[in-house]
Amino acid sequence: MIEYVLSSLGFMIALMLQYGIFSRWTLLSGSADIVLLFIIALCLNSDAKRLWILILIFGAIVGAISALPFYVPLLFYFAVFLSAQQIRKRIMQTPLLSMYLLTFISTLAWHGINIALLFVKRVPFDLSTALFEILLPSVLLNILLSLLIHSIVQEGSRMISPRGAEA
Amino acid sequence: MRNLLSPKNIRNLIIVTIVIGLIVIALSGYLTPVFSFLFSPTISTQSWLSQRYIAFREFFTSPRDMATLRAQNQALEQEVAQLQSEIVALQENLSQASILYTLLDFARTHPEHEYIAATVIGREISPYLQYVIIDKGSNHGIRYGMPVVTQEGLVGRIDAVIANASRVKLITDASMAVNVRLKAADVEAQIHGSITGEITLDLIPQDVEVQLGEVLLTSGLGGTYPPNIFVGQVLSMQSKQNTLFQTGSVQPVVDFHGLSAVLVISNFNVVDITPLEP
Question: Does B131 touch chain A (CB under 8 A)?
Answer without folding.
Answer: yes
